[in-house]
Specification:
The protein is mostly helical. Helices cover 61% and strands 5% of the residues. It has 2 domains: 69 residues; 192 residues, no CATH class. The strands form 2 sheets. The protein has a 3-stranded antiparallel β-sheet with strand order 1-3-2. It has a two-stranded antiparallel sheet with strand order 4-5.
Length: 293
């Protein structure tokens, strides 16, 4: 590799791998990536401007704040290192939400919107004919997937208004809904009314009113998932850092541990099933209220 002296390439790659391992072990960036050096390496590393040396302790590492050669970033080690750096930046952005109620709820709302957009809105019935005929016929329409997204959008507005006081945050979602003229709104309102006026939807709202932390966890998870996609982060270790940070913020804001929050999320599907157990028909809510991973 032309950007690195041949006799230093193995050391540089080891520094990259060490930084990644240390970050995955939850070391802070300032303490991550240091490897022991001999005197010969200490002298030679002076010629590489993206490395730094701790002369007192005879350690060296990649300076993660420096601009690295493109040729190095195109290697597997360089790509993973770069994704880890992007994950660190994302984690810092997530942690900043902890003490900012408005931005936190904006992020949660954006994530819930993504969750509902990706939901497979489908129905079940205890026996054939339980679903209202007009609703059943509507679901069988060829453009159901497009319509389902719009229904989901309306449902998340309804749910959010019921749980949080966030009128300013919701305004842009309401305006987008009002300006959408692409489908038959009379039929759409009918379907939404059938769902929102059902006893099971009221149960769903009641459940999440008592478990706002779960709804916030779902929303923030989908929010950071979109950030992961936008930033082109594919390395699993980098993704885990981001999702872990999101769960930690939600847990701390709600006065609980991340372990207890994860346990509650693990039981979410079962609890949603219990809510609609005695209903004659309903939405498969487990395909709606779910994590992106």
């Amino acid at each position: 590799m032309q950007c690195i002296p041949e006799d230093l390439s193995d050391l540089v790659f080891e520094m990259l791998r060490t930084f990644v391992r240390d970050i995955e072990a939850r070391k802070p960036p300032l303490k991550a990536g240091w490897v022991p050096l001999n005197e010969d390496y200490v002298k030679k590393l002076r010629s590489i401007n993206f490395c730094e040396v701790d002369y007192e302790n005879m350690n060296g590492r990649i300076n993660y704040r420096s601009c690295m050669p493109e040729e190095l970033l195109l290697t597997d080690e360089g790509r993973i290192f770069s994704e880890i750096l992007r994950s660190i930046e994302t984690v810092q952005q997530i942690e900043a939400l902890k003490n900012n109620d408005h931005e936190y709820l904006e992020a949660v709302m954006a994530g819930l919107d993504e969750m509902f957009k990706n939901a497979r809105l489908s129905f079940w019935e205890m026996k054939e004919g339980s679903i209202p005929e007009k609703l059943h016929n509507f679901v069988l329409r060829p453009r159901w997937n497009i319509i389902a997204e719009k229904i989901s959008h309306s449902l998340i507005l309804n749910l959010s208004k019921s749980i949080w006081s966030m009128d300013g945050i919701l305004q842009k979602y309401e305006e987008a809904e009002a300006n959408d003229k692409s489908i038959d709104f009379d039929l759409l309102r009918f379907v939404i009314h059938e769902i929102e006026e059902s006893f099971q939807w009221r149960k769903i709202i009641g459940f999440f009113k008592s478990n706002k932390d779960l709804l916030e966890a779902l929303g923030l998870a989908w929010y950071v998932n979109q950030k992961i996609i936008d930033k082109g982060i594919e390395y699993l270790g980098a993704k885990l850092l981001i999702f872990e940070a999101a769960m930690k913020v939600v847990a701390e804001r709600n006065g609980e541990t991340t372990d207890s929050l994860r346990d509650k999320l693990a039981s979410l599907s079962e609890n949603l099933d219990k809510l609609v157990f005695e209903e004659k028909w309903g939405v498969n809510w487990n395909d709606v209220f779910c994590l992106p991973y």
